[in-house]
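Forwarding the complex inputs:
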Amino acid sequence: MKVLEIARVEFGNMVRSNKFLAIVAIFTLMLLSGLCRVTEPSAMLSFGAATPEVESSKKLALKVMGVIGINVPMLVPVVAVMLGFDIISGKVEKGIVRTLLAQPISRDHIIAGTFVAGLTSLLVGVAIPLALSLSLAILLLGITPSLTDIALLITYVSVVAVFALAYYALSVFFSTVTSNSVKSLAAGTLVWLFSSFMLPGLSTAIIRLLLGPPKFEQVQMGQMIVLKTDPDYMRKFTDLQSKILSLTLDYHFRVIQDQLLLGLGVKDYTGLVVLIAFSLASLIASFTVFVKREVR
Amino acid sequence: MILVEKLVPPIKTENLTKIYKLGGKEVRAVDGVNLEVPKRSIFGLLGRNGAGKSTLIHMLMGTVLPTSGRGTVLGYDIVKESLKIREKVGFMPEGLGFYEDLTAEQNLMAIAKLMGLKKPTESVRECLKLVGLWEYRQRKYGEMSVGMKQRLGIAQALLKDPELLVLDEPTSGVDPDGAREFRRLIQELNKQGKTIFISTHLLYEIGPLFTHIAVMRQGKIVVQGSVSDLKEKLMADQGYVYEVELSKPAQVIIDRMCSLNGVKEAILEGNKLVVLCSKPLAPTLLSLLEGYGVESFRLAKPTLEDIFREFSG
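Prediction (whole assembly, two chains):
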């Protein structure tokens, strides 16, 4: 009961904060602007049948996911880090932990309540912008989604929530270990920058060091001779790159997202399992660190 | 049971010790503390910054585990029954804070519900009135002044109507008006029969309130007892200072004074005579001063600051 009471107060405080409102507003607007591009006329010629009837028969959900999918891997980690970076350190810095510990409440109650509130606010922080932007887009564009569309979008939102949870848990861990919001924000942002921007580039350099420069073979195409990368080299390159990038959370999300974007549904659950396991491990580590710490 | 309750002091510790390891080095933050706080006293735990006051208080409240030794608060063991202690004791830790986006009333309501109070609304209203925050109950914590925040801190400690209040540095950052208001509140609560345990290094603000004190230095209690006893002890150790106002200067009296058994020093500055004695000599001095026009004669008692300075190092 005490856990739920702490969670209730924490959640109330979180959703009242300007930070939360700003995140929701920015996230909603960015998604909405992306969604508006679903019906943007394209100058490119479509191959095959391109009548309006055939175009509209494409699943709306896939189109929406295709548009949102560009922004989500960038935005969701930012939202998650922003929501989690001061969840424990902020409470320590503001003296709220001291006030709570002055009551007949143990440290595990405090952190468990904070987790519940944080996870709820995270779900709300991801779900509200998605639901709001989709609703607005549907209203503005006059499209009625089918049941299949809705099911597909719910699946997608759930996967996004799991991805957000992984970054959130990491951010909570930094917040707990450092007890300093600035350090925690810096650490969370660095991990995101490294995973999303630096490692993909660095991985190419690492592979080049391991495999040497790319090998090419000459292929006759009609009257032209083109250079084609050695397929064996390419296979090794792709394998190594996957292995390196699998160290990041983003990679596992992208694997699942790609499956969904291809309209196949989630066939390989490895990415989901990794994200959930990572989140649980981070939250358990944060819990242990917080419970064992003493007031100084 | 009633007899036991009467006999058990609100706070009692035996050889309480806390050792922290900082960079591979052991720091004895609290070192073998034996403390006994009498019931219904206003007890001041004095000491300079870093003397170990806050660590001792956190051990008493069960938020820091002792390395060795034992202690009880309201008869409850500080290690095994810490939640029970915090259920019964009103505790205001140093540097406490509340949710910035919630109002004073919302913050207290949240704590009242966490404590499982039967009538949270009534308790919150009563406490807000008692600390003078009723008019500001709708103000967000983030928009309150330091003094108001401190008062809210006291209000949360009073929510459970405790018989023992433990306040850690309650007046730090509070302006003189706030400190005066705080003194009034503490006196009122003490009159209601509550025992009040206050840790501070700011003597001039709340020093006059204390009935008992303990002075901490480098993790140890160097002296403790009732303020009056300690003043007597200090006078016995350092000497008794008599201040005499004469109607006219009388240099001749100095030699006679100094020849008395027990007089260490006598100084005459204009019409004012100061006599430092190793034992109480008031009747002897008065008889000696007969005929010299004594306008006033008083024993200068040591102040709390004198005790603090003497023992805190």
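Chain B has a mean pLDDT of 87.
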